[in-house]
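This part of the workshop introduces the protein records we will be handling. The structure tokens are whole numbers drawn from a learned vocabulary of backbone shapes. The record below serves as our worked example for the rest of this section.

===
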Amino acid sequence: MASNSGSISSSPRSDVLRTVTSTLCLRCLLLQIIIWLLLSLQLNMSFHISLPKQSSMSRRLYQAFINDNTIKNGVSNAKAARYPKQSNNSTTDGLSACLLVNDENPRLPEWLAYHYQMLPLRSLIVAVDPASRSSPSEILSRWKDMGMEVDVWEDDDYMIQGQQGHGLCDATNPKVDCEDHHLKRQLAFVMKCMSDFKRRNKTWVLLTDVDEYVTFNNINEDDPNLQMDEAPDGIPTLSDWKFQKNSVGGGIVKGTANGELVSFGVKSQDVQYGNVIQDSSGNKYFLRDDFAFRDLTVMPQAPGVPTLKQSHIRDGKLYANIYNDRYDGHNDGEQVEIETNWREPDTPAKGSTVIDGGHLVKDTRGRTYYVEREIALLPPQLNTRWAIEARRRLPSVGNDATIQDVLEDVFRDGYAREALGSCLAMPRVLFGPREDEVGPKDASPEGFSNSDFVTLRYHWHAKREDLETNKFQKTIIDVSRLPTNILNSQARNIHVPLNYYCRVTPPRYSASLLRVNHYLDSFEAFSYRADARSFKRSKQHYDEKSTGTAVSIDDAIKPWLRNFVSSVGSEKAVILLSGAGDFVSLE
């Protein structure tokens, strides 16, 4: 019968059945939820890791961490990740490179073969310096049936008549700076080259010289101390610190600890950010990476203190245009000079250094300012803990994995893609001219000689992360992720080509997945080039560069040649490598 509300009435029997059914369904639903949660927990328990203000580590890398979470003597027991074997005879897009050459024919065959095997290099633009007495055309033509696109440019292909850097430099004119002339040519070339590769829908573009070889930055026993992101328990943090070197390897460290200024002398210690150092009284301090810290603590707006815009560091002082100055009453937009306790950053840029902003700073009088966040496009600093796990899983040269395999694998992780960005800076390690019988004597396959290849001939190198000897970083840049207008602008410098996208500060060695082996070679090779910058090729300059390049041995790169010969065949390899290491007279 009908109820007063107009709904259909039900019998007591049907109400009981509905109640039982509802209870069963609810229990089924709860059981399904429990099963789903258990499965999710099992599938994802190895995926999540706590990182400060960063997304989770990739499942593969963190699984490696929980499977083997110890590093003995700096060397991991974990096996390298298995990467799919690549066919080096394929016509895959591979990676690209921009190369400026000047009498480089003895070096060019080895450089091409190595990067063909290891990148794999499949697109190349070569610019020939007008001072070059030799042409690379014959060597480059050997690669036309190997799946490599090669274009050769002259000055007119990337510069206009009258532009600084165009044409030969007149070294006899005292008013002409031939070093600056050369640098202008370099900068014009790399920007035009990257722009051309972007137009052709390429991705990663390598920017190195012909004496530099990019390789995996595997963990080694002689690695520098692993920089920490945070101070160990019980050790105070030294922030806004500076290190003033003396002539005997020590110096004075100044900074702020627990809100107080401290200053103390140190002997030959590893005074670098992320390390713990000790003063003469035994007090320990953690050297904070101030730039990384400020990246992680970016503030979107000024919290009621004066704002500094267009901020930059010059000669150890902070200059900026000030707004809302409640301390000294400067007009809005007026330029001020502020004395701080900042450590002036190491940088390949000359003159002023722009700072990232988005944080508070204090002057020497304890007054607080907000540095406006103007460079918002820079990627965050890579977390050291994440990076060391990624390095532990890197393949070794000789197991058929390529740089492209590693980049594609690592960049699948969202955090890595964000933190590494589109401009990947690679630290350099300088290999000196010392030769001896230590290490493998059979690195070269039958029919080849170690003495013809710098990557096989030399294995003594400078201390890793010794910026004074190894000099500044080189880069590999994903042009597909860059706006076209950025590549049409002026390059910053050859080590940091792009404003905003490339970090000015040198990359942390311990947090770098790739590195560049830089070979000084013999003096015969060093002085072979017809360089208008004659002082750069003198015996004195060579001896100065050689100092400190016999600290440790690294033979990890040597298996590449056997792999290359095996990949392309002995007969083809002989043709492609013909002339390697043969410094014939060009007079």
Notes: The radius of gyration is 29 Å. Residues 387 and 511 are 5 Å apart (CA to CA). The first helix runs from residue 12 to 44. The chain has 16 helices and 24 strands.
